[in-house]
């Protein structure tokens, strides 16, 4: 049996085992502590949704590099594409030379990314943070306006500007001052909307809160862009309700503001579509700019920004680009990733996984008082833990305990939410039904073990 078809298996008395612990000990001496390390696991080999540590323990990975490995680890076609490109050349700086891989990938994304406008352009950089920062630069250049609006619960990156955009300031300790002109509205977190509101009333409430920003923070004529994730990642897997998105699109159209969708985590099949903004397009409210990264190239560092040509044409020459943007290896990997995802219908795989897990999570919601909410789209499924359903008090303590105990049984989970009370699903979309079931069994064992944790 290949590693990609195995089930979780722990053979050492503790996790990590002695070989893994040795590497972790060496890491603590040689590497910056501030990077952080959430799990007692060392990856020696990985395939599909599984990885093996140096001691032979086999883990099911529901984190997937925080959404990077939608196609699975070590896909042989992607490896071959990278190897073939490396045999020709590894790098050609696109500001200086042209190479066909960059052009072909831009052409492909211009066809499939659902942004407003018929003629599109795409640029490449290296990370999600860079994509988001460049999207704002592009929006400012197009509109001639200095300010942007972002939202509570948002995560957009760790550059100086995107730290200002990101809501969770645990990622920005000792890093200020930050750029001004970044204003924060309240995201439509329906589970935690004011009590007794219907969904329609809550959406009206959140739209009113957004419109108040033009009186209390930035006049609309100074606002270049409204930026948000179709499903908040770090914020707790909170989907943007489509009726709210439609209302935001209307506001942007009326006030000359660009709508920017951060698809860094939602993109490339995770949402049950190639892009979550396809749902927006179907509802008649496509964004003006989309940013992408993570699973675009299965871990080869590349990210992208796509918008209609007239937006890009307003950007002064030389203000965007960079040394590694559109690296040849990343372009080759991304082209192959998209080819495989379209050929094998990975969005349907996401919907299949998401349906199975959502059904089980909803059973737990009925069964356990500590499960407060289940939400998401496609395989972006979040499960929120509370001390009890009546109070909805966030319960990060039980999530921390569940994650620890699940890892000891061979399942890697990750928290989310401003208080760390949500477990988010970012498993590779090639995960088998048997692996999904094995993961659910371990997860429920960890819940049952910690029901008294508050």
UniProtKB/TrEMBL annotation:
Pathway: Amino-acid degradation; 4-aminobutanoate degradation. One of its GO terms (molecular function) is 4-aminobutyrate:2-oxoglutarate transaminase activity. It comes from the Bacteria. Its cofactor is pyridoxal 5'-phosphate. Keywords: Aminotransferase, Pyridoxal phosphate, Transferase. InterPro entries: Aminotrans_3 (IPR005814), Class-III_PLP-dep_AT (IPR050103), PyrdxlP-dep_Trfase (IPR015424), PyrdxlP-dep_Trfase_major (IPR015421), PyrdxlP-dep_Trfase_small (IPR015422). Gene3D superfamilies: Aspartate Aminotransferase, domain 1, Type I PLP-dependent aspartate aminotransferase-like (Major domain). Its EC number is 2.6.1.19, 2.6.1.22. CDD domains: OAT_like (cd00610). It catalyses: 4-aminobutanoate + 2-oxoglutarate = succinate semialdehyde + L-glutamate; (S)-3-amino-2-methylpropanoate + 2-oxoglutarate = 2-methyl-3-oxopropanoate + L-glutamate. Belongs to the class-III pyridoxal-phosphate-dependent aminotransferase family. This is (S)-3-amino-2-methylpropionate transaminase. It comes from Clostridium scatologenes.
